């Protein structure tokens, strides 16, 4: 399988996984609201799940023996694991790139970690902000699936929001760690589960003071609250997926100054990028057009070359056939002539 085919397989799998997760969500929604489409969705779920499992099998089969990790794109990784002594399986998770070594196979034995081992490590290396963005995509895909079945979901801007803002569980956990000093991941997670309204109310008061400072190319918005130097990461549908403190190892005032100075540097760099793109877009298009023409000419030359090679092969085969025919005729001649004309040793003959 070529690199391009492998990348296409990855993209197909990620889309199929998204469809599967969204279909599961749609089933739950339909059951809660007693919509008569549950059986149809369950049938779709089985079909999508079969396709997902087939794609996982292809990914697992094509993984290199030298590594039990394969990047599928968008921060998601396939992890080869031991299901039992004789069976290998696949786990697919969004991982923090700098922590991949924690789930890598043993370099000496090449032995993959067990599923249980990887599951115990995952909480420390899972890319939770990316997972929250994924959940936003799933919510959107769920609405699309329900719409295809004639079910319209209530306005997503109002469901589960405080003043139009949705807070992810990861954002609430980060609040417990950053503002309340709960360092333990498990304790912070437990706290956010039992103090949802309290945390979200406090977060919104902080978020109100934040200023929108950046929009990324993939639609993620960044809001900076400079009293606490907190950066809010906001996905689609106004969902805050995470928050973090901009801390460069100095005082809050110096850190705040660094943030605003760096924003100016980034803004200037983006303006320069836009200028370079605008100035060179015509040249790039001309190069692309000429490249396409050259590729067409190459295809024509290759076709002509293939035809000439085929003709050469035919000529060579024809020559071999003729030579063989001549050789057989000569052998018959020598055989017949030897019956009457004998040759003597020591006599030189003129072969003409």
Describe this structure in words.
With 352 residues, this protein is α+β, with helices and mostly antiparallel strands. The protein contains eight helices and eight strands; from the N terminus they run ααβββααβαααββββα. It has helices at 3-32, 38-62, 115-125, 128-148, 169-178, 185-194, 196-208, 252-338, and strands at residues 69-73, 76-82, 88-94, 166-167, 211-215, 221-225, 230-234, 239-245. Strands 4-8-7-6-5 form a five-stranded mixed beta sheet, with helices on both faces. The chain has a three-stranded antiparallel beta sheet with strand order 1-2-3. A hairpin with a 4-residue loop joins β6 and β7 (230-234). The radius of gyration is 34 Å and the shape is elongated.
